[in-house]
Amino acid sequence: LKSATEEIETLIALMARLPGLGPRSARRAVLHLIRKRSTLMDPLATLMGHVAEATRECSRCGNFATSDICDICSDPARDIGEICIVEDVADLWAMERGKAFKGRYHVLGGMLSALDAIGPEDIGIPSLLSRIVSEQVREVILALNATVEAQTTAHYIADALREANVQVTSLAQGVPIGGELDYLDDGTIQAALRARKRF
Ligand SMILES: [Zn+2]
Fold first, then answer.
1. Residues by chain with Cβ below 5 Å of ion ligand 1
2. Which of 64, 84, 159, 161 has the highest Cβ tally under 10 A?
3. Cα 68 to ligand 1 centre (Å)
């Protein structure tokens, strides 16, 4: 059986693996949690257990959800005629922080890469294409990062939709070269969405 001290040390070691936290800040965070046991640590532990158990991928768009379909896909106020394609859930959250987009999303979860042998099937592009056709989408907005792999992926999707009756646009102004959506501020996201252009 581990002593309490060893368990606390293990907790600190686990916390130190979180992005943005090193061993020093993990130690401070754990000390703070123990001191605020009833107001912070207990509710956090309960909620983390619940989220760990309930969280899954939305079967429609790939966003995180606590049921089969996520809150965005099941929201009747969202425009079903527009799909915004992003690489990662972090990018979806970044777009939502911008509050400018009222359609729905598709999270690819990766990008095409010849180097890493990642093909269209690996990132679910065939099911994305059939989703676009079956849901009678009017406009596909490519909100992908400015990396080589992302641009290759964007061109692939645009080519695949060339024959379909759908407008393909991409985010324009605001996204810096080599930049990542998750690091942009809300105003930049808004400007980039407004200035989207035909791809
Ligand atoms: Zn969804």
1. 58, 60-61, 63, 70, 73
2. 84
3. 8
Residue 198 backbone phi and psi in degrees, to 5: -60, 135
Rg (CA), the chain: 20
Strands 139-142, 104-107: pairing is: unpaired
Q: Which residues contact 55 (CB under 8 A, 6 or more apart)?
A: 64, 65, 66
Beta pairing class for 64-65 and 56-57: antiparallel
Which conformational region is residue 20 in: left (phi greater than 0), alpha (psi within -120 to 50 degrees), or beta? left
Question: What is the Å distance from ligand 1's center to 64 Cα?
Answer: 8
The mean pLDDT of 131-158, rounded to a whole number, is 91
Give the pLDDT confidence of 51-92 residue by residue, as tens digits: 999 999 999 999 999 999 999 999 999 999 999 999 999 999
